[in-house]
Amino acid sequence: MIKCHLSRLMGEKKLKMVDVARGCGIPRRSVSKLYYEKAKRVDFETLDKLCWFFECQVGDLLEFIPDDE
């Protein structure tokens, strides 16, 4: 499974979803889906904007966690 750390990054900077959406120029709904880990897919452009905004790498935003067998 893929774990999204957007909520942690936002919490560290005390940002609201609307702050991230405006700062990145992406829809608030996209931010919300990533925040609550409901997104089924993420566009590279969205990842690029989030990494730029948070000054981080993709690996800081997303993490692969193997499923238990």
Features of the shown structure:
mainly alpha; 434 Repressor (Amino-terminal Domain); two-stranded antiparallel ribbon; 69 residues; 9% strand
What does this structure look like?
By secondary structure, the protein is mainly α. The protein has five helices and two strands; from the N terminus they run βαααααβ. It has one domain: 434 Repressor (Amino-terminal Domain). Strands 1-2 form a two-stranded antiparallel ribbon. α2 packs across α3. The radius of gyration is 12 Å and the shape is globular.
Give a summary of the structure in a few sentences.
This protein is mainly alpha-helical. Helix content is 57%, strand content 9%.
| Quaternary assembly | single chain
Major β-sheet, in short?
2 strands, antiparallel
Using DSSP, what is the number of strands?
2
> And the CATH topology?
434 Repressor (Amino-terminal Domain)
Given as residue ranges, the uncertain stretches (5+ residues, pLDDT < 50) are none
Element-by-element helix/strand order: EHHHHHE
Can you count the helices? 5
* Name of the CATH class: Mainly Alpha
CATH architecture: Orthogonal Bundle
Q: Which strand-content bin applies to the residues?
A: 5-15%
Class computed from helices, strands and strand pairing: mainly alpha
Average the pLDDT over all residues and give the rounded result. 95
